[in-house]
Design a protein that fits this description.
Helices cover 37% and strands 10% of the residues. It is an alpha+beta fold and 105 residues long. The strands form two sheets. It has a two-stranded parallel ribbon. A two-stranded antiparallel ribbon has the order 3-4. The chain starts with a helix and ends in a 21-residue tail after the last strand.
Amino acid sequence: PITPGELLCLGSSLAFSGLFYYMYRKKAKVVARIQEAPKLQVDDNLPALVSATEGRCLPYVALEGIVLPAQAALTSHYHEGLQGVIQKLLLKEHRLIWNSLVRSW
């Protein structure tokens, strides 16, 4: 005979397993897109390429080339000799506006 406590534990275990599998699949898709990202060179053709894309945005791109830091290079706390720079940072804010006539976002 199965007790109600065992059924509760089994149900919650299945619910959590389903939730974690969903989160895993969602993150796996993002990782796959990042791994398949095109590699572009930092040169004079890059701004024209970005302007030609839909929405003027490249979702996942690996940039290769020499860039100069604005101030000092960033150093890694975890790996010695690993450095990086932030050449330009662009932040876009998307806002949802409530439309009371249509009652939608």
